[in-house]
Amino acid sequence: MRTEGSPRFHPLSIEPTAEQRAIQAARWRVCLVHANAGAAKTTTLALRLAEALAWGAAPSSLLALVFTEEARQVLRQRLLEIGVAPARARQIPVQTFEQFAEQILLKAEQVSVPRIEDAAALRPYVLQALEQVSNRYAQRYEYLDIRTHHVAVSQFLECQQRLKASMLLESDDASLDAEDRAIHAQTTLTDYLCAHEFEALRNSRYDGVMFRSAQDATYDLAKNLQEEAFWHDYLPTCRLIVADELHDMNESAFQVLCALLDKGDVFFVGAGDKDQVIHRAAGADEAFLLERFRDRYPATRSLPLTQTYRHGPHLAFAVEHFKNKVVSSALPEHTGVELSLYNHHEPQAAAQATLRAVRKWVGLGHGLNSCAILLRDTHQSVVLENALLQAGVPYRIQGFTSYLQRREILFIQGLLALSIGALETVPNTTRRGDIVAALAFFAELSMDDHTLEQAQAEIAEYPELMQSFFHGQIERTAPEMSAQRMRMAIELLTNEGTDANAAMVLRQVCDAVDLQMVARRLFVHEEQARVIQKSIQGLIAIAEQQNWSLKALYDWLGTAGSAPERRGDQAVVLECVAQSKGKEYPHVLLPWLEQGEFPAEGAVTQEEENLFYVAITRTQQQLSLIVPQEVASQSPFVARLGLTQVDQRANEALRQNQQRQQARPYQAVTRQAAPSFREPQPTQDGRLVLAVPYAEKDEAKALGAMWDPAGKVWYVPAGKDHRLFERWLPN
Questions:
Q1: CB 62 within 8 A of CB 238
Q2: 523 with 424, same domain?
Q3: Does an H or E element contain 241, and which?
Q4: Gap between the Cα atoms of 418 and 393, Å rounded
């Protein structure tokens, strides 16, 4: 085994750190890079790929695997930025695990399998699987909980994706029955049995694989590799494999990767951050970074990547204090960490404190579009959106839906339209159709998708049909209790009249409909039921603040509800922390840093710590922490940052970084030397002369180089691909 040496590839425009050079030049067979957030791990993996090219590896013998399309594009861009010739960079296979698996499956199956990504298109298969579970197991298991509404289907699809990513649908222990296997898989028996029936529908015994949805290709390939040895023959033999975002690694991807590493003398470098494991619901686990690779490959070497390029020392050292690991920064910039206090006994206080922090930032000359408000969960957007709407601050939502466009608000708007208003006053036809769907959902109406979609389209175009839909469909075909509660709500709204106080009447309506109980029955996950309640409470709160009548509230929903977001360049970003991973923003604001909110009540502490770590490390220039005035109510994560403890050390590090910047401008090191990959200059007869050291002559010969005894030189014959011989091109 060769040890580390000096790198052969010299990148353009950057000066790699000692840690990066060690990874670039590493010759251990399996290397795991433990990288901090913002530590340029993707750039470092690009350096490792370029180093392999400099040693003579063919681009096609390399392989880079990632988990998202965004990460794939970033890695390709990093290859170009460090100076890899575009033609060479294009030849390096850079794929997501799913893309790679699809390619191998296509090679073996010789047929292109349709992909179905849309949940609505998958719903018929789920319903068929549920029906088969009911037919086969209802007599054996009396407590099966079979639900067929859209929310239950969506939750099942999430569950079965986790089961497959974790390879928990398979069990080597024949002594376990279905109940024990479901417990081991940490799911309900209904979902476990349905997942097996769903897979049987997807993989026909006679017709083969009928379709694949999200991450199915990776699962299918992993399963095939486990069950049949011949599948390994379809895998490529590589010289080097790199993998990014190893904190998103799941069991199915791990099995595919190990099969690649077990084929030939291949080197592997994978990078990840164990503190960014936040997708456990999708099978992600820090065990892959900490244990699994080392258990499988005992000689695994771990290398650090500690220096962040995203923010300055003040935040870097606070992150170090929070996570108890080495974090540093060479940036000559002060990344501010500011606490904004609020009275947590006042429902609007946190949102108002967040709004003040945004205005303060803008007052310093920054744009709204440089602000990102990262939420622990979607229910927090209710009060915040109300504050932004009332203040006239433009915002755009990424990764979730505005509370004014959620099903429960559409339901309330539908009840208002049936009582004190008319649907035609809602200008947006799409929203009209959504209101119809919301009424059908909360009425627990049994309508097939096609019939419901037809009703939505007709009523959206002819809103006067809404009353007919209620009397002809909901009252006649909905469960009696649901229909009766909706009648009571509409009668209550009608009797109160358009001038009645909206907040007071809506509270009575929620009691009449018993919305809390309905939500718990329709939604399997308790958190989703709580979000519905908080959305309704937010609507009541803004109605109370504005002292709106029912008519005023209905009119406002018809306008603000149709397009609550203000899109454009100058708009604050609202995003959940879990969707922000891999991104960065100049100013990050974290509201509701209080007990029960962040960390969330009843949540796993380790996952909450990782979410907080991800949130604060999205920051480039300013981090605003919105915390309660009472220390006892504050999130414990705030104190663990140790802001006062690290301040003096951070000031000294910042001073040193600024001095270093003055002496040698940071990230302004532009190399004027010749590019590492040179265009060859062949002789008149088309041959390309090489400078091959004696110790490497056998390797050059094996690649196709020839010896000229007269000229006593090695050369590449005319017409042969010279790219295999890059490392021996003369300077």
A1: yes
A2: yes
A3: strand 240-243
A4: 32
